[in-house]
Amino acid sequence: MAQEGDFRLEREPYYRPLHGEVELFEAAWRNRLPVLLKGPTGCGKTRLVEFMAWRLGRSLVTVSCHDDLTAADLAGRYLVTAGETVWVDGPMTRAVRLGAILYLDEIVEARKDTTVVIHPLADDRRALFLEKRGEVLHAPPEFMLAISYNPGYQSVLKELKQSTRQRFVAIDFDYPAAEVEAAIVARESGVDAATAQALVKLAHMTRNLKGNGLDEGASTRLLVHAGKLIAQGVAPRTACEGAVALALSDEREMLAALNELVSSVF
Amino acid sequence: MSSSARYFESPVGSAEPPLGAAELERRLDELVGAVLSSRRTAAGLARGLAEQARPLQDFVLRWAGVAAKSSPELAYQFAGLAARAVGELGYAGAERWLLAAMDVYDREGLYRASAELKDLAAFVERAREGAWGVSFAEVAGVLETFVAGLAGRRLKLAPAETAWTDSATLFLPQRITLFASRAENFRVYKVSAALLWAQTRFGSFALALADYSGTPRELELLNLLEALRLAARLEHELPGLHRDLEALSRPALGAEFGPARERLRAPGASAADSLAALRRLPASARAPDWPFLGTLDPARALAVRDERVARDKQALRAALQHWSDERGDEGLPPLDGESLASGAAAPPEDVQRLVQSLRQDLGELPADCLLPAGESPYPAHAREAAAAADRADGGEEAGALRYDEWDHRRGHYRRHWCVLRERDVQPGDPAFVEAALERFRPQIRQLRRTFEALRGEDRRLRGEPFGEDVDLDALVRARAELAAGGELGERLFVRRARRERDMVALFMVDMSGSTKGWINDCERHALVLLCEALEALGDRYAIYGFSGLTRKRCEVYRVKRFDEPYGLAVRERIAGIQALDYTRMGAAIRHLSGILARQPARTRLLLTLSDGKPDDFSDGYRGEYGIEDTRQALIEARRSGVHPFCITIDRAASGYLPHMYGAVNYTVVADVARLPTKLAELYRRLTA
Questions:
Q1: Domain that holds residue B9
Q2: What is this model's ipTM?
């Protein structure tokens, strides 16, 4: 069985608070409320959870959801070894036992029937039913459930059900204001302030194209990637073409336009 | 065709010193001696060549040698023109010029070949057109996205004689062939487009028309001064673009422009400063012939601007009225330009967009825009036409259905307000579909493959190496084998495979008059491709068209019903889809989402394919009323378990579609020509 120490963060993750979300998260934790983080990809949702786990001194169990994720994958299952059936906890069960923060990243990617499993854990019962073992696990007070969700997906199958979403305290994320975002990019990637500002300017240009050929503009994460490449000595244009333009689109014409934007900024 | 870089390569190393005239004459004698005489010697040629660099000399000698094997006369003529040809075309281009002439020699003899060779100018022209020229059509898509990325109001692109803008459309030349490489010619396009964008963005047309009056020469100089002002502005914002602009600013400006340039570099310099600088220029000042400088047409730009400003003001006042109604304010909302800009009052998206547009045009918000006002009056002729249609077709009729319509001003439904009929599309020529199938054959094959892969199956897979549950049968078998001395197998679990797709879709196609022409063609192509893809996928789907004129003549046209197979009849009806009247969307959505809601399925998708806002002639349907009614119809649809989604080619859609469909439930296909391949792809993504 995994030890609690395996899920502890060793170092303080860098996180720049934007608008009181740290206090909100902490208040939710103290009041044993689950949290829903929503916002576009790469704007700091996961980083906030990491930061909070560190700040609150909790272990963090992260599950990246995918469309084949079953309830058994989360709760646990019997395995057959050497002629015996052995129960093995899934990440959710483990997190409950540890009193950790359980973070289900991109929850809408999981199958609908899977999301329902978290319901009893997400309301005031705070219990996990292990159907196959006939066991009810009650979550300790320090346990917390956090899920993330990107409302920008254009898929009717990727909407969060009302019955799920109405159990959570929601924290809305968006890209930070330009100066703040530039400071984050500079801090995370090690580029100078001017380069960071140029990267943010590029990001804003790509965000102008959202809905006009791009599904999403460049995220802060992409900017950090590009910044890291630049800090390593890669030419800014090359770095942005690789870390921003090609990451955003496969369409030849859109790539050409993005590269022209890159070469206008740098 | 070789890459552009080759045109600048020298064919051999250039370290060696040039050959002298005597040596050149000797070598030329060897090559073309057969056509020389006492009166026609190689001396003149050699003297000319002696002034050239060694690589060029080597190039001429080598190719004169090649040509001389066919015709010494041609070689002689080549040697005389080669230096000029290389100057114009580069080495590779000059090589092709000679080879083209030699081809003519082989086919048609010396006389024609010599003419071909001597007409260097024509060859240069053709070569540029073909090899290095960049056309508007090639770059329009990229530049339009590029300009959209630069921010500000959405701008259209259109081809024209020269580069100019009327502040709504950026006009760019049909073709640019100024430079000997595609990259450089494209750069001219890009810089031109960016500069025109900057004109609209940074207030080149913010003055009164009288301020711009002047001679053509003055206008030309003003254009240049504006370019200088905007270039300085771009230097900080977009250094990369500024470098491109600098590189194209050749020849350099004369000293007479020095003070003006300095003045216009000042932060906050405006069009008024350019005008002031214009008056200080000496009479001798001439605008240079920079390739990206187009023309300035303040008269047309201001006409378009004023029209837009009037429209925006009206729309802003209506939007403010609506907003204040929504907030339940008494009288006027306490607004001023500051509170709108600071966002303290958190105005709705359409208000923000209009404020931004007005600011961009006028520099500031005129106070009179901030007075909320009711809906704008409708033109008299529209009212009359609508009344006529009303009278003409007012009677009841079998098969006519009545639908409520939402009146946002009253906050109530108008009961049984719209009369809707289902009609069949008149079958069109099936050859249209055949042609489309032929034309898009590769795309269809690709689509079918992609969609087949999506077809899901719902099965409990037994005997899997991992899964949700223990497969008892397999376990018992394995135990038995173990007891018999065998090995314990690994495939002992049950796993459930991906759920079956349980989805129906109804496509609602805009047949309003505005789709006439190639939009309609693209819609029909898109439907053909979609049907092919959906047949591969196996989702159940229906296609209906909609159009209407007044509340008493809302019509939906059956193209394919849910229970109908995709066969000849459907294909004929797809071919028969025409552009008809107006877009009274509410009734059509209510009717079609009713049909859709009766289909048994887990997910029901209502996809609207449209080219613009809801619109009708009468009853004040145009504008806010239509948008609100459509929105209400969509809310009803959602309540009945239907997911609405809109695919539009209207680039202004971000102004109203988020309000109607929700921020993520629409998409804009910017390039209509892409619609056929995009539609099926969007459907796939939407349902994946």
A1: 4-132
A2: 0.77
